[in-house]
Each structure stands twice: as structure tokens, then as C-alpha cells.
# Entry
Amino acid sequence: MFPRLTIMCQEYPLRRLGNRPHVPQNVNPQGQRRSWRIICMILGLSVLPLSVHADPAPPLRNWGDAMTSLTLGLGWLVPAVGLKPASLSMPHLSIPNDPKELFAIDRIAVGPRNLTLSKVSDGMVFGLLAGAAAQAAWLARDSGTRGRSAATVESLLLTGAVVEWLKVSVGRSRPYSYDHVISPKDDFAHRSFPSGHTAMAFGAALALTLSWRDNGFLNGAGGKAAAAGIWAAAASTASLRVASSSHFPTDVLASSGIAVLCGVIVEGVRWKAAHR
# Structure
């Protein structure tokens, strides 16, 4: 009996979580280090001096916008629907994950999931996306502003694709998995990094701001107040994702950087395509 107990202790080293021995449920052991490296890279790139040109975004010729949007849409759909997070393939045990494994800033998000706050964040991001979609539809009516409409669609689709591929690649467990045991088949629970809600909220805020810059609305006091409102709504969405224990602070921090970076990339690519 005792030799067997010794072997078991060697195979499954125990750590303390309160007064209980802890063995983490299927958390990706590389997820924390990998997510931290990605956060640093995203934030570094998002502050590079990539110019967002002041002249309106031109439309691409020869069905370029339609093909680009279709490709980006498929790039978003494949990981979102057809792929599973990396951590789902790991052994699943019946003890919650250990908060001591987290970055210090991320421990504030650990707790039971608050569905009320999560639904409020759903409403906020849907409202921002609806505003961006309405603006894009309105701009698409005129050939002179059609390029800005396409840029809005493409930047949001690119943001969604990058977010979903990172979710399945990193496979980070959500904060509530550190509070109680999650199902080994719970796909949603392993898509914490990065936050899709935060990325889409900041992407929509950026798209609306650029549209208002192009048509001069941003120059007036009303435009500045509206811009401040949508960016505050985007920041509130990020805060609610953390408060509801759906995401860690580092998840939403990286997501805001992803949204801005994707928007700047689309602007730069379109500007260079029009001036080559």
C-alpha cells in the first residue's frame, strides 16, 4: 500500500488551495506564459508610429473589398465554429484551477460567473456594433464614402478573425474555472484569451471615430462628446467582462490592443493600395 501511495504522490504532486490539495483541471500549462508574450507583442505593435492617414479611405477596385471581406469572414468563422481550444485536449481533473498560477493583476477576476453583468456587456457591445453597422450601411450608399464603409467592415472582420484564432491557440481557462470545477466539454470556458466582446467594442469605437473624422463631425463639440461616449462604452464593456468573471484584466488589455492594431493595419493597407 505505502509504495503505491509513494508512486501516486510522485505522479500527481499536490499543491494547497485553502485547506485542500490542488490538482488543476485541464488548464494549458503554457497558456499563462504564451498569453503574456502575446500581450506584450500586441501592445508593442499597437503603439508603433503607423500613420492613420487623414484622407478618406478609398474603395478597392475589381471586387477587392468583397473578396477581402469574404476571406476575413471565413477566417473568423473557422476557429469560432470548427475548432476547439487547445486546453480541451488535456487531462481533466476534478479540482478548480489554482489562482496562485495567475498573474497578480488577474486574480481580481476570480470568482463565480455573474450572468447579469455578462448580459449587460452583451448589450453594450451589440449596441456599438449596431452603430458601426448602421454607419457603414449609410456610407455605402455614396461612391465617395464607400471606401470608409468597406474599411469598417474589414477592420471588424479582421479583429474577429485574430481574436478567434488566438482563443483556440492559447486555450486559456476563464476566471470562474478558478472558483469551481468546469465541465471537461465546456468549450466556452476555455476561450478566455483574448476577449471578443472587448475587441469588437473597441473596434467599433475606432471605426465610428474614423468615420466621423472623415465627414467632419468630429470637429464639433457634439462629435467630440459622441466620441468620448463610445470610447467610454468600449471601456465599460471591458470592465464588465472582468467584473462578471468572464475574462481576466490581461485578456481585455490585449483585446483593446488587437482592435486598434487591426484598424490601423486596414487603414495602412488601403491607403497604400490606393497610392501605389
Notes: Residues 1-31, 45-54 have pLDDT under 50 and may be disordered. The beta strands are 15-17, 20-22.
